[in-house]
Sequence to fold (394 residues):
Amino acid sequence: MNDGRISRGRLLRRAGLAAGAFAAAPLLAACGEVTTRSAAAVGTTEWWRGQHDTGRLVFANWPLYIDYTNWLKDRPSLNGFSRHTGIEVTYAEVIEGNEPFFQKIAPRLQAGQPLGYDLIVLTNGWQTSQLIGNGWLTPLDHSMLPNFATYAASIAKNPNYDPGNRYTIPWQSGFTGIAYNANRIDGEITSIKDLWNPKYRGRIGMMNDNTDLGSAGLLYLGIDPATSTAADWERAAGALRKQRGLVRGYYDQGYINVLERGDTWISQAWSGDIFQANASGYPHLKFVVPEEGVMHWTDNLMIPMNARNPLSAMAWMNYYYQPRVAAMVADWVEYITPVPDAQAILEKSDPAVGRSPLVFPTPAMSARARNYPTFSTKARFDAWNGNFDPIINS
Fold:
């Protein structure tokens, strides 16, 4: 999945900061041998009952991906958690990309060593599937997550990449759909096929992330990406090759700047970016959920194997899924919250966020949400890359 899909760079600009303002701390050094607290299999009910409260939580996340006040000095949701539970939180903004972070943590996890982080956030995709498939995540005990059971949106439950939410629960999510400049394009955009319309030649933007690009090709052909086959990928690549002459460029998260300048008139787009653009003086940029479907990505909370404070991680997961807490986070990050009941709170405190379908999707939007393909083997992952990387790189 594309590391920039959450436009954290845009959040950094909004805050007037450079990404370098947050020190990318190294993985915490392991202290001694891993202590086995229970003979039971990790993640079983017996194992969870054998864990002990430590009063500490080390939470690794992406920069500016939680609520802030007081010039980024305070994080109200985490402060409230500490007051409520007595758990001291060390919050590390060290995840700059899914693949780079995965490459840092994989050797330790493979060696059975603790990372020093009790909770991490990664996007659904190859890296998360690898963590699950290799047994490098701690299975969750959902009896300890009553707020998730009560308040999580249906779209947040039982994802195809983690059936039953055995290892992950959503943190924030968003849609990859279409945005267009209403000052440049007459009428409404409704279909993924509009990205293939010859009258927009040279004004079309596509993603340089092959997962989003390939999924667009599949939707163009009327194929659900989640159930697509290798043969489907070849057909989608063919459709995208035919589109190349119409495309101005294949963009990373900088696509939003190109769209705002008017260099592109219609583009693949991420929902949160368009919400932020509208709030920043670009109300003529419109986000579209295509009639063929919209891709739904999710950043997930997960507990790495051998975490030293797993009970604290579970406590934060449960605490976050309270509507008032989820509302605090959503009001700042402005992406789709997995807690729909946060909407009523924000409709009163911040109507622009509370009434936005880009933070609280309508049922019609959610019904069009499509899952990305999962790759059960590296051979399938390589086949996907082999079809779509050449389109971006040629």
Observations:
- The two ends are 20 Å apart (CA to CA).
